[in-house]
């Protein structure tokens, strides 16, 4: 039975970027509601406290990636992980959110009971001496902000012969300070954001760094400094400058993304030519940096100050586009017959995507984890048939935080309407006839392998009505401000639901 201090109006799971942001929005817009944040680890930060590989940083401009309510004022465009973590700690402390967080509380199950009209959470609490106790929490509303990938498990990848390698094999997800790479010959397998970040960081002290990719990626440089913000600070108060900068950045990002999506041939030429100008003269751009897909079919990789391209202009960094025949004792034999020698192989091969990582979710006794891929998502935040809970994620093709904010606000809008009308249960609902007519599209229409492999575990969208997972802030904001909260949503009390 839950004690009084473990029963809340709202519970947030996860103290990463989305969880901290949700906590601020909830306490600002629902000030009379009790809430707590349950965090499985012993620290704030989520992704930014977890990843330790060299060079780990944001892959979006901090003017948008940071919190609008606690602006990033350092003037840098892209920040290292430890600076983002410190920023999140300061932001949480500034609003008293840090006092709401319960660390070392790992949620193992979430169970909704329609008769009780509440969620029951079973939680493993690890004490300071390492002893694990089970706690029970209860809440009327639940915000899942645990992200979309597993911390414990990377994307399973078969690399033929990897067990034969006599050197060190490291996955970036499990990087520690014990990994030493100075003066070593390193092969990075992969071409995504992690590989693009690792190459220039490792090249500073490694003997040789080779990024081995099956297919190229688009890489775009951002200036080191937020020069627009720095300019405006000279003429107006910082609070004004930050807000104006946010709007300019948001409009510019949305316009850029939409231009590349709607004019893919122009977009490809624009990005490829920008890369060509930064690469060494004579570099085979068509082979190594001309992807087979259009821009934003997969996420663009960003690099600050063009550090990735600068490394490739140096003597000890290179890119090889080929397929692996097998790993040998001393390196990798490629399909082309070329051999790459190495002392260390880094497998930057992607994330293992999963919602509700290691949390079993039940609705009236029925486990729903295995049916998430059969359910439609409502306005990017709630799942069909699952009451009183929001799943907070950000954008894939644009900056994460604005998406997480609009989806949290959409969920708050649901709570406010429920309480205004006397409802105690709110769940997205589609009648059978309508459901039969709805298209079944993936909620993330991204062609990256680590996403396409798990589409059966991710919700559906129809891209009509509220059954969408918004792609940019402007579309989501319009639906938030002007959309009818009752469309596709059933608000009830238990007595009504019981007779339905």
TrEMBL record:
Keywords: FAD, Flavoprotein, Monooxygenase, Oxidoreductase. It comes from the Eukaryota. The keyword Flavoprotein applies. GO terms for molecular function: flavin adenine dinucleotide binding; N,N-dimethylaniline monooxygenase activity; NADP binding. InterPro entries: FAD-binding_MO, FAD/NAD-bd_sf, Flavin_mOase-like. Pfam families: FMO-like. Signal peptide: none annotated. Its cofactor is FAD. This is Monooxygenase. It comes from Pseudoneurospora amorphoporcata.
């Amino acid at each position: 039975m839950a004690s009084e201090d473990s029963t809340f109006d709202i519970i947030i799971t996860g103290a990463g970027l989305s969880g901290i942001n949700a906590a601020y929005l909830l306490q600002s817009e629902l000030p009379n509601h009790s809430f707590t944040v349950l965090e499985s680890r012993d620290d704030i930060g989520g992704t930014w406290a977890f990843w330790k590989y060299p060079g780990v940083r944001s892959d979006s401009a901090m003017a948008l990636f940071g919190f609008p309510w606690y602006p990033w004022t350092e003037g840098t465009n892209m920040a290292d992980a430890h600076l983002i973590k410190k920023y999140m700690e300061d932001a949480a402390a500034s609003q008293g959110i840090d006092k709401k967080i319960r660390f070392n509380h790992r949620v193992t199950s979430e169970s909704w009971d329609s008769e009780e009209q509440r969620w029951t959470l079973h939680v493993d609490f690890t004490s300071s001496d390492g002893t694990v106790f089970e706690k029970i929490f209860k809440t009327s509303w639940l915000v899942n902000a645990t992200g979309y990938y597993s911390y414990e498990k990377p994307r399973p990848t078969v690399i033929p012969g990897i067990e034969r390698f006599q050197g060190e094999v490291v996955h970036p997800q499990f990087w520690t300070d014990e990994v030493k790479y100075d003066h070593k010959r390193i092969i990075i397998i992969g071409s995504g954001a992690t590989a693009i970040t690792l190459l220039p960081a490792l090249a500073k002290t490694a003997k040789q760094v080779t990024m081995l990719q099956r297919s190229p990626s688009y890489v775009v440089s951002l200036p080191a400094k937020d020069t627009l913000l720095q300019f405006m600070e000279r003429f107006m108060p910082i609070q004004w400058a930050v807000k104006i900068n946010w709007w300019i950045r948001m409009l510019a990002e949305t316009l850029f993304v939409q231009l590349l999506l709607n004019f893919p041939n122009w977009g490809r030429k624009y990005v490829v030519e920008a890369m060509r100008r930064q690469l060494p003269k004579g570099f085979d751009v068509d082979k190594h940096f001309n992807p087979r897909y259009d821009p934003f079919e997969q996420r663009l990789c960003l690099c600050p100050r063009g550090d990735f391209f600068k490394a490739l202009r140096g003597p000890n960094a290179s890119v090889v586009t080929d397929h692996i025949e097998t790993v040998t004792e001393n390196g990798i034999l490629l399909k082309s017959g070329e051999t790459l020698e190495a002392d260390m192989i880094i497998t930057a091969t992607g994330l293992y995507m999963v919602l509700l990582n290691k949390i079993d979710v039940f609705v009236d006794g029925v486990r729903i984890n295995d049916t998430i891929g059969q359910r439609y998502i409502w306005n990017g935040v709630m799942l069909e048939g699952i009451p009183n809970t929001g799943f907070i994620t950000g954008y894939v093709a644009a900056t994460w935080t604005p998406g997480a904010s609009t989806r949290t606000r959409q969920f708050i809008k649901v709570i406010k309407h429920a309480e205004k009308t006397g409802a105690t249960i709110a769940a997205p609902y589609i009648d059978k006839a309508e459901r039969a007519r709805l298209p079944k599209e993936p909620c993330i229409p991204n062609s990256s392998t680590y996403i396409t492999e798990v589409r059966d575990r991710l919700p559906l969208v129809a891209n009509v009505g509220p059954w969408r997972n918004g792609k940019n802030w402007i579309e989501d904001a319009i639906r938030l401000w002007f959309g009818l909260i009752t469309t596709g949503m059933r608000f009830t009390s238990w007595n009504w639901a019981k007779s339905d």
